[in-house]
Amino acid sequence: MHIDPLEKKWAQIVLAICAFFIVIIMMEALFHGVNAPSNVETIDSAKLHLSKEFAEDNLGVQVDENGEIIIRMVAGRYSFFPKKITVPAETKLTFRWVSMDVLHGVHIPMTNMSTMIVPGFVAEIETSFPKPGDYPVLCNEYCGLGHDHMWSKIDVVEKGQWQAPQVITKGGDKK
Ligand code: CUA
């Protein structure tokens, strides 16, 4: 089979570009904690208020029995609930997101937080905030007419100034 030298050259360039992108994806996954949400944990989006974990009283910041900080958030047209939470900077945080209605996304600039929130599934992401300040929480999946206005805020304070809420178990049962 004859391959024209020019065609061969361009094929090599295309392969090189593909390899370059694969390297970038690998670097982000390995060194920046950016990866596809792989957990396929399901939840009934229509009954969040009745669920043990995502009932209204359990939303927001909690510390579990192992000292892990877990933040449970609900996305719904058109905001993230609770509207405002306070977390410490430079600390590992586990966010658990669910949708109460349609497909939403969540993006927090300056962090690795960018995921879809698919109705029926829990999106769990580990992140940390590099420094104190107000971080916007933005929806990055088109979810309806109010999509542009779907955002809330996270208040990040110095590690030493943060006060942990009462310790509760992972299932959401208050001790
Ligand atoms: Cu929610 Cu766009």
Oligomer: single chain
In the CATH scheme, the class of the largest domain would be: Mainly Beta
Shape: elongated
The CATH homologous superfamily of the largest domain is called Cupredoxins -  blue copper proteins
What percent of the residues sit in helical stretches (DSSP H or I)?
10-25%
End-to-end distance: 74 Å
Describe, in plain words, how this protein is organized in 3D.
- With 175 residues, this protein is α+β, with helices and mostly antiparallel strands.
- It has two domains: 1-35; 45-168, Cupredoxins -  blue copper proteins (Immunoglobulin-like), CATH 2.60.40.420.
- 15% of the residues lie in helices and 30% in strands.
- The chain is built from one helix and ten strands; from the N terminus they run αββββββββββ.
- It has one helix at residues 5-31, and strands spanning 60-63, 69-76, 79-81, 84-88, 93-99, 104-107, 114-117, 123-127, 133-138, 151-157.
- The strands form three sheets. Strands 1, 2, 3, 5 and 8 form a five-stranded mixed β-sheet that branches. Strands 4-10-9 form a three-stranded mixed β-sheet, with no helix packed on it.
- Strand 6 (104-107) and strand 7 form a beta hairpin.
- The longest helix is centred in the first third of the chain and has 27 residues, at 5-31.
- The protein is elongated.
- The relative contact order is 0.18.
- The mean pLDDT is 87.
- Dinuclear copper ion binds next to loops.
